[in-house]
């Protein structure tokens, strides 16, 4: 239901377990919220690496026969939402390559901000790329003659990459997890009772696969899992390890049950909602959420404010992208197909609506319009993060700045555009007060425009993205929206 903030990718891998492929399938199923465009699994028995990839949801890409053909004691998987490169089968992952160092499968979550520069350099040196995604850059760096087959090849290659990456790599002998020096994207380790280890983007994928949470990988860490057990090493200098965890994982992307950056996501979201109630109190009759990502924050708002919480919307879980896409349903109809208003909860009431974020504003505007049809007295929108004013270059598919509603509009202009009684965004300082680590440990570039890693490629993209925005209806030249 997000109006522009789309998921990035989800990673899952199992090593040392006879039903590794089946567990990987269920792990990807649990991570489906992180990507719905394509899915893939690569597996090995210690010799060759075989794989299967396809467009669509996990349940659409795999069946029992395919999983049986893949069956091996080590496997990695990937669900994708394109943040770099178009949505085609060519860009589906894991990528499987054969080079001088052997065979390898690569699954990547994040976005490399120097990918085009590295690609251009490698192509001049003779590399022939098969995809348009940034993940393939690592394969070509590994295959480059000065590094191919060297014991420290992976370390040296990872040092060349700038931006956000959590990788799971699979060779015939081992499964490898690696996380960038800032730890933008999550990656965690689990243990299977009876033997075997698991790597996953989120700990929520451990429950259906029978694994127990062990720990998160550290920023800058390489974790090798083989028949000899675990081996941890760091590929970057200690001075380069500066945590910049993506705060949006807590706000929207991660499942509420996951442990991300050392905290249970549901608890963080409840604190965000409680802080909203403190910062923007209002006399109201009921608190509702925009399902599902606003649910936890709405509970926090209810508990802090004492205003009763109820279900104002019922979500139709059987109307998904596979139905919407073929019929090209416009946004307002899509909202009405996915959400049903519970009119007795709304009619004649002063309603607080809790939402996690506003990106373009188109979907939430249609939701508010739909809500007014149910006859409330007032609608007060509370957003559990600050206004989003800048695009993300680290693995979230935010629009350009010209398309971001808050980039060119004040809160009052947005309130009028949305037809709201009141509107409250949680300020940056108060949002950061709801998480346990120091404020400097989080990336907040989408709220501030201050990027912890910046390249010429990014600067050019930002320049192109500052398009002339459109005008908010009824606002004239003073209020603008795309």
Summary?
It contains 17 helices and 23 strands. It has 482 residues and is an alpha+beta fold.
CATH-defined topology of the largest domain: Glutamine Phosphoribosylpyrophosphate, subunit 1, domain 1
Beta-strand portion reads 15-25%
Low-confidence stretches: 322-326, 467-482
CATH architecture of the largest domain: 4-Layer Sandwich
Quick one: CATH superfamily of the largest domain?
Aminohydrolase, N-terminal nucleophile (Ntn) domain
Walkthrough of the structure:
A seven-stranded antiparallel β-sheet has the order 3-2-4-1-10-9-11. It has a six-stranded antiparallel β-sheet with strand order 5-6-7-8-12-13. A four-stranded parallel β-sheet has the order 17-20-21-22, with helices on both faces. The protein is of the alpha+beta class and 482 residues long. The chain is built from 17 helices and 23 strands. The chain has two domains: 9-242, 4-Layer Sandwich (Glutamine Phosphoribosylpyrophosphate, subunit 1, domain 1), CATH 3.60.20.10; 265-478, Rossmann fold (3-Layer(aba) Sandwich), CATH 3.40.50. It is globular, with a radius of gyration of 23 Å. It has helices spanning 20-30, 58-61, 64-70, 115-124, 136-143, 153-160, 247-253, 265-279, 295-305, 321-327, 331-338, 343-346, 362-372, 411-418, 428-432, 445-448, 456-465, and strands at residues 9-15, 38-44, 49-55, 74-80, 95-99, 102-112, 163-170, 174-179, 188-192, 197-200, 211-216, 221-226, 229-234, 245-246, 259-260, 263-264, 286-289, 313-315, 339-341, 350-355, 378-383, 422-425, 442-443. Mean pLDDT is 90; it is low at 322-326 and 467-482.
């Amino acid at each position: 239901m997000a109006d522009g903030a789309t998921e990035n990718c989800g990673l899952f891998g199992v090593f040392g377990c006879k039903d590794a492929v089946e567990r990987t399938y269920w792990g990807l199923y649990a991570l489906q919220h992180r990507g719905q465009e394509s899915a893939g699994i690569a597996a090995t028995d210690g010799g060759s690496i075989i794989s299967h990839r396809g467009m669509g949801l996990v349940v659409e890409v795999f069946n029992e026969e395919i999983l049986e053909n893949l069956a091996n004691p080590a496997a990695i998987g990937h669900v994708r939402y394109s943040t770099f490169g178009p949505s085609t089968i060519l860009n589906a992952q894991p990528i499987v390559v054969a080079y001088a160092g052997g065979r390898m499968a690569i699954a990547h979550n994040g976005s490399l901000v120097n990918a085009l520069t590295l690609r251009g350099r490698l192509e001049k040196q003779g590399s022939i790329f098969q995809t348009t995604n940034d993940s393939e850059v690592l394969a070509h760096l590994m295959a480059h003659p000065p590094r191919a087959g060297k014991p420290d090849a992976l370390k040296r290659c990872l040092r060349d990459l700038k931006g956000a990456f959590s990788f799971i790599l699979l060779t015939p002998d081992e499964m490898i997890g690696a996380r960038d020096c800032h730890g933008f994207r999550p990656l965690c380790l689990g243990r299977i009772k009876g033997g075997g280890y698991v790597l996953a983007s989120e700990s929520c994928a451990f429950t259906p696969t029978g694994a127990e949470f062990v720990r998160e990988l550290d920023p800058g860490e390489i974790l090798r899992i083989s028949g000899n057990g675990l081996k941890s090493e760091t590929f970057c200098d200690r001075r380069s390890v500066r945590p910049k965890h993506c705060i949006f994982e807590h706000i929207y992307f991660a499942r509420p049950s996951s442990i991300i950056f050392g905290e249970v996501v549901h608890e963080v979201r409840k604190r965000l909602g409680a802080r909203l109630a403190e910062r923007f109190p209002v006399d109201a009759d009921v608190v509702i959420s925009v399902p599902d990502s606003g649910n936890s924050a709405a509970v926090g708002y209810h508990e802090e404010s004492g205003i009763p919480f109820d279900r104002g919307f019922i979500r139709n879980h059987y109307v998904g992208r596979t139905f919407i896409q073929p019929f090209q349903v416009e946004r307002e109809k899509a909202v009405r197909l996915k959400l049903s208003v519970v009119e007795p909860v709304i009619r004649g009431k002063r309603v607080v609506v809790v939402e996690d974020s506003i990106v373009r504003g188109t979907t939430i505007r249609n939701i508010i319009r739909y809500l007014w049809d149910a006859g409330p007295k007032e609608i007060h929108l509370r957003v559990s993060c600050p206004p989003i004013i800048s695009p993300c270059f680290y693995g979230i598919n935010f629009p350009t700045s010209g398309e971001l509603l808050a980039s060119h509009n004040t809160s009052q202009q947005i309130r009028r555009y949305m037809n709201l009684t009141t509107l409250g965004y949680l300020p940056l300082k108060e949002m950061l007060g709801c998480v346990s680590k120091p404020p400097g440990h989080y990336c907040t570039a989408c709220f501030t425009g201050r990027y912890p890693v910046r390249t010429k490629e990014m600067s050019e993209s930002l320049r192109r993205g500052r398009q002339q925005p459109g005008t908010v209806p009824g606002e004239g030249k003073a209020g603008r929206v795309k």
